[in-house]
Each structure stands twice: as C-alpha cells, then as structure tokens.
Amino acid sequence: IGYVIQQVGLFPHMSVADNIATVPRLLGWDRKRVDKRTDELLDLVDLAPHEYRKRYPRQLSGGQQQRVGIARAMAADPSIMLMDEPFGAIDAITRHDLQNELLTIQRKVVKTFIFVTHDVDEALRLADRITVMRNGEVVQYDTPLNLLHRPADDFVKALLGTEDVFRQLSLVPVSTLMEPANGTSCDGSAIRQDQDARVALSALIASGAKELTVVDGQDRPVGCLTLASVLARGGRDEASVGPES
Questions:
Q1: Domain tally for the chain?
Q2: How far apart are CA 123 and CA 118, in angstroms?
Q3: Residue 179 is part of which domain span?
Q4: Residue environment code for 2-14, b if the CB has 16+ CB neighbours within 10 A, otherwise e
Q5: pTM
Q6: What does each C-alpha distance from 95 to 100, 114, 230 come to in angstroms?
C-alpha cells in the first residue's frame, strides 16, 4: 500500500530522487531500476527529471512537494494508494490542479485510491464511490450521483447539499449533454468534452452565449452544447438564468 499524508512528510535532508527511491531501496532494488522508476514517476507527476531530481524539499512549492509525495508513495507500484487529506493544506488553485493531475494519474495507472477528505466537492469530483461517515460509523456508501439523488438520511442530505443544482451539474460530463457536430460548427467558444456541466454553465453565462463548441483532447470540434440543454439537466429554464441574474 502507498501512503500520502496531508503534510507531505518528505525527508528534508534528502533530494527529490532519494525521497522517491526510499521504498525501492529498502526492497533491495538495484540502482539502474531505482533510477528508471524515479524518472518514470517524476514524468508521471509532471516534474521534469533533469530539473527536479536533485532538488531538496525546501526548494519546492507546496504543490510540487505534494507531487513528489505522490510519486514516493507509488514508487514500489502498490496496488492500493491511501491518501489522507493530501491537498488540505494547499491553496485552492493548486488544489484544483492537483485534483486534475490525480484523476489523470489514476486513469493511467489503474489503481485503487482510498482518498480521505472533509471537502464534499473534492469527494464528489474525484470519487467513483463515496463512504459518508458519522461518529465513526458508515452512514452511506454509494456513487456520487446516488448520494445526491437518494441520500440515506437527513445528515447525508445536509452534508452534501443535495438540493444544490450547481453541485449536481458538476457530476454531469459535457459529453453527455452535447449534440454531435455532424460536420456543422457552433458559434460559441470552445469547451473540452471532459469538462462538467457546471463549468459549461459558468462559461455560457459569462459570455452571454447560447451555445459552446465542444472539443476533444486534440482541440477538434466534436459537438455543440446549448444553454437550453444544460439548464434542462439542472431543472431550470433560460428565462431564469442570464448575464444579468
């Protein structure tokens, strides 16, 4: 099992490379294998090996330290990763970026991540399944959508804010609401198909547009997303939402 903690816990007297190599060396890996694994993991967490492997923790930002902490936890290729509020002490912008990177990493390595957090939005954004606990007991274990739509009791309902339309939209991928391009173009600005409907609604309201062009990872148009389709998913109508509201 790999373990990532809130305060990172990097060894301050050791370089980035030596921190990542801690467990592999304890397991008796040879130097060539350790060096290769270290560089692989630095690339995975978006820290260029030639630039960061010789640095020390004090020379890194909080977000960079947490990336190294994730790399160290994955060094011996554990099947399970336990992350105990790893982003709790990081500013909101960096935390959002690290959440994106964690989702990307999880898709690449296909491991089970057990992520402990008190941030409801973070849990809804990252998890496939969520365990809600109260006084040390499990209240509900379910998918994010089921937790919002079918809370087990008033505690879960209050904790998750199940009537928050914007929170519900954050769980709806743009790709599920768009109309396929079919060779036609949209008038609006671009939004990625892996973004959520809450981001799309914010972009539509801010621009005053009625539609957005949906693009894939290579910025190729794949569809159109209308304001009406987003509002219909959220149970609203166009007259109730606009730049002036």
A1: 3
A2: 8
A3: 174-240
A4: bbbbbebebeeee
A5: 0.72
A6: 9, 17, 26
In a domain, 159, yes or no: yes
199 within domain boundaries = yes
As a whole number of angstroms, the distance between CA 239 and CA 77 comes to 53
Residue 117: both structure tokens together: 């957090």
Same domain for 146 and 219, yes or no, is no
Task: Chunk the chain into consecutive blocks of 10 residues (it has 245) and report each block's average pLDDT, rounded to whole numbers.
Answer: 84 95 95 96 93 95 90 93 86 84 86 92 91 95 89 91 78 86 73 85 85 85 87 54 40
Q: Are residues 188 and 153 in the same domain?
A: no
What token pair was written down for 119? 């941030």
Encoded tokens for 224:
């159109």
Record the tokens describing residue 124, joined without a space.
Answer: 């809804």
Q: Same domain for 63 and 139?
A: no
245 lies in some domain: no
